Amino acid sequence: MDLNQHILIVDDSKIMRKIINDFLQRMGLTVIIEAANGKEALRVIADKDIDLVISDWSMQGMTGFDILKTIRQDIQDRKLPFIMITAEGQLFHVLKAFRAGVDQYLIKPFDFKQFEYVLKKIL
Length: 123
Known about the structure:
Rossmann fold; single chain; 5 helices; alpha/beta; 5 strands
């Protein structure tokens, strides 16, 4: 696993961004960028070379699902790995996300081992 990959965390909860950031650092990843909403996330993706997006589903304005759809419509970013982290555990949401092109789906609450397993499948 390349520890210099650029990881973008998108969550409107500062606490969740901190938890995910801490988990990533625990795994040795250090190039971590945070966005508090979908519009900010899309600006970061347009401006920086991002290797992985980790996004919450439920956010005000633009949801994580909206971010995923936007990325998958952009030919340049279509292959950008995307992990959805959410409390939305209903089968409907999981299927909707996978149909839209999510790479992994992690349901809150989760622990470090679950997070590490999902991340290693992608990286």
